[in-house]
Amino acid sequence: MTKNRLLPKQSAPIPRDTPIEMRRFLESVQEQLDVGGGLRRGDPKHRWLRFSDLENAGLGRFNAALNGGEGGLEPPNNGGGNIVRPGTPQNFEVSGGYDWIHLRWDPGHGWPQTEIWRATDSDNIADAVRVGTVGNYGSQYPDHDVDYGVTYYYWVRFVKEDGIPQPFTPANGMPGAIVLHPPELLQQLEDRITSQQLSQDLNDYVEGIEVKADHANNQYTIKVGQNGAIAGFGLGFTSPNYNPTNPNHSIALFNVDTFAITHPGETSADQRLVFAVEDGNVVMDAAYITNLVVTDAVIQSVNVSKIVGNTASFVSANIEGASITSAQIAYQIFSDLWVLSGGTQGWMIDRAGGGYFNDIFARGNIQATSLEAGTAMVDTLNINGNAVTSPQYSTGSQILKSPGSSPSNIITSSTVTSKAGMNGVLIIGNVNISGEGGPTQADIRIKRNGSVSIGHSGTSEYDGETGSTAVIAFDSSPGINPYYTLEVSVPSAASASCRFRLPSMVVQAGYR
């Protein structure tokens, strides 16, 4: 294990004769070096992480020969230090939906990707193919490419940053299938039940009452017939083909329009209906159900502790508009495109505050400890407490020919919107001059709001000159939402002739 050298208290001082503009830049660089280098300045937790730090912690070993001689980190000699990330996803679960299959596992902190593999009607990993990849530490996957009546087997595995996959889990595939749809289940049961001898006997009409014990078919029936209608009850055993795995499969049938169960009371008025079947519809007062599959439901109030659904249709169909007072996300929230693209498109926000987005449009302020960007477009740039707005450019083509009236407006800037802390506005005007005769006098001014003069060239004499001149003014008291004009004032008694043209003006606000 190597030891770090003792660090100095601070970096070398900046020479006193350094120009002020350069000094500010060097001071900023010096601060970053001191804090990042851990030179007894700033918060120690903001210092840079070195290869030697990882080596001293037992998390790696520096090898100068790696990366073409630039050096790099390789596993430590002791096999890995004390920090270990699980090599396989934990608590892997598969649950069937109405037309999709939902997979989830514990978040794999430290593993950037999770692969999902699937085999059809085969619990053999050799028959499996990769059907999806979840990026950026995701822990869920919706499998929509599934068919009704087919059993699928799933495996998942983590993938390292360098693309090397880890072992699959579980050892045997986790089965999953779309749930049996109620209409199909009802049709299957109807076909099986109506084919039984007991069902056929209950539908044979009798006039009056018949109680019959059929010892040959081992069944018992009670029937009541009236005006061609039949009602009855039967009890017995099914034929062997009804349930081949259970030859002693019992059955009870009621052939009635209404079947009801009531809760007894002291009087008939105290009786309470708790369960009924009326014209093929089931009605009940209360129910405790472990697993429930429903094709369509109309529910007035729902109180649940967990809902797992098809994200795409569930959200758009059932929660098309929602008002959420507060929401607590256990791990991350993301768009469906994020999952389907493996983390390359869409957006994601995790519980630690990390986020991935394609584009961000912010109307208010953005505060950050650091900002990295290839190209940044800002209205007001704040650097170490000082800020400037982006310059506003105004152009014009009006020409003033002397002698003439005084003054003459040439260019007017757009309004400079006031913001908190605005301490001044810089205005630069550019004037083109074309001389045609002898000397003439002119005064070029910059005014605020068309009346307050904040800078001018002074009355100068132009003797047949051709060229340009600049007028620069700093307005230290701009007030609220000022605008600026550039004016040329020529005495009406001027004898010579000159043309004054002002093609541009730049206005820039500053803040502190």
Topology:
Layout: H1 20-36, H2 51-56, E1 61-63, E2 72-74, E3 93-96, E4 101-104, E5 113-120, E6 129-135, E7 140-143, E8 152-159, E9 169-176, H3 182-194, H4 197-202, E10 208-214, E11 219-226, E12 229-237, E13 250-255, E14 258-263, E15 272-278, E16 281-284, H5 311-318, E17 332-334, H6 336-340, E18 348-350, E19 355-356, E20 380-383, E21 386-389, E22 392-395, E23 399-401, E24 408-412, E25 422-435, E26 439-448, E27 452-456, E28 460-463, E29 466-475, E30 484-489, E31 498-511
Antiparallel strand pairs: 1-2, 3-4, 4-7, 5-6, 5-8, 8-9, 10-11, 11-12, 12-13, 14-15, 15-16, 17-18, 18-19, 20-21, 21-31, 22-31, 23-31, 24-30, 25-29, 25-31, 26-27, 26-28, 26-30
Mean pLDDT: 77
Biggest sheet, in brief? 7 strands, antiparallel
Number of helices: 6
- Show unreliable segments: 311-318
Which structural class fits the helix and strand makeup? mainly beta
**How big a fraction of the residues is strand?**
35-45%
The shape, in one word, is elongated
**Number of DSSP-assigned strands:** 31
As a percent range, the share of helical residues equals: 10-25%
> What value does the Rg take, in angstroms?
42 Å
The quaternary organization reads as: single chain
Distance between the termini: 49 Å
